[in-house]
Amino acid sequence: MIRTAVGCGTPSGLQLSRNGLGAVECGRADFLAMQSPPYAPRLTFNGDGEITEVAGRYHP
After folding, report:
1. SS3 letters for 1-57?
2. Residue 54 pLDDT exceeds 80
3. What tens digit of pLDDT does each residue of 35-50 get?
4. Number of domains composing the chain
């Protein structure tokens, strides 16, 4: 799962979690099409060491 602060998915506009992480779910294709990658993302891993979530931090 990929979550961004703006620019991907619905709802649009700035959506943040309480710790400043992106809250808008973003599909892989939409994420790869974004002009700028997320700033200092938080990565979440499963027990096999695979990334299960990418949450970009809001950076104006």
Report:
1. CEEECCCCCCCCCCCECCCCEECEEECHHHHHHCCCCCEEEEEEECCCCCEEEEEEE
2. yes
3. 666 667 889 999 999 9
4. 1
